[in-house]
Predict the structure.
Amino acid sequence: MGVPADQLETTLDTWNSAVKNKKDAEFVRTTAMDNDLNSAPYYAIKIGPGIHYTMGGVKINSNTEVLNKNGKPIPGLFVAGEVTGGLHGQNQIGGNSVAEILIFGYQAGIKSAEFVKAQ
Ligand SMILES: Cc1cc2nc3c(=O)[nH]c(=O)nc-3n(C[C@H](O)[C@H](O)[C@H](O)COP(=O)(O)OP(=O)(O)OC[C@H]3O[C@@H](n4cnc5c(N)ncnc54)[C@H](O)[C@@H]3O)c2cc1C
């Protein structure tokens, strides 16, 4: 794994005693503390944070029309998905983006076709 062995040992000891005592002083964890790491085999994977959604973007109405600064729809401009903003409030809950792009993408298709037909 290429990590300092003594630090890894300390981490494992800390976790094992947290599981044993049902008390996680480090992270105050209360769930999924059933399994200690006292016996092999061990497997390691590298994990890290990643960006999976962009919260900002243009404002739309329920017809997927882009709104101008005065909140009025810009004729003929329909968008959906990551380019939009504000749909999820302060935080996008995992999984909701796929629902968003399907529902609003479908809506944008319908509304833009209606717009073209009406020209
Ligand atoms: C690692 C990761 C994990 C995720 N996990 C989840 C999850 O579990 N559940 C969930 O709901 N959401 C998840 N998301 C978020 C979700 O995948 C995205 O919000 C969603 O795919 C965005 O769809 P979109 O159509 O708006 O944009 P995109 O999928 O980004 O589509 C935009 C498309 O436009 C194309 N494009 C860009 N510029 C041009 C151009 N000039 N001309 C022509 N084409 C262009 C791009 O190539 C791309 O194909 C995850 C995202 C990431 C990155």
Summary: The longest strand covers residues 73-78. The beta strands are 65-67, 73-78.
